[in-house]
UniProtKB/TrEMBL annotation:
Name of the protein in question: Helix-turn-helix domain-containing protein
Domain HTH cro/C1-type span(s) in chain numbering: 43-98
A Pfam family: HTH_37
GO molecular function, a single term: DNA binding
InterPro entries: Cro/C1-type_HTH, HigA2-like_HTH, Lambda_DNA-bd_dom_sf
Coiled coil regions, renumbered to chain: none
Length: 110
């Protein structure tokens, strides 16, 4: 049996191998983009599961509709822990942060 791919399709795996490959900087940038997209998607999912519009969530959080819109944008890089906590509290949730090992990564001494 071969190794299980972390990608949903062979096409995505091919694109990653071709454009990122073993380039550490590109891999780090790719991971950062995935993290931004994951946070944005989670905010959107939680908001829609609560049957709230962006405007309604904004009022609960004490911010603007455009701020919620930015937070739900996969390209947005300004997610702050404080804002995520405010959103979580408005949705009767809490923020949980985990640090997980990267496959094949070795800790560096700093």
């Amino acid at each position: 049996m071969g190794r299980k791919s972390r990608f949903a399709s062979k096409g995505l795996e091919f694109a990653y191998d071709r454009y990122v490959g073993k380039d550490k900087q590109k891999a780090e940038a790719f991971e950062a983009e995935l993290a931004n997209a994951d946070v944005a998607r989670k905010i959107y999912d939680l908001r829609t599961q609560a049957n709230l519009t962006q405007g309604e969530l904004a009022k609960l959080v004490g911010t603007s509709t455009s701020a919620i819109s930015r937070l739900e944008d996969a390209d947005y890089e300004g997610h702050s822990l404080a804002m995520l906590r405010r959103i979580a509290a408005a949705l009767n949730k809490r923020v949980e942060i985990r640090f997980v090992s990267l496959k094949g990564a070795t800790p560096s001494a700093s």
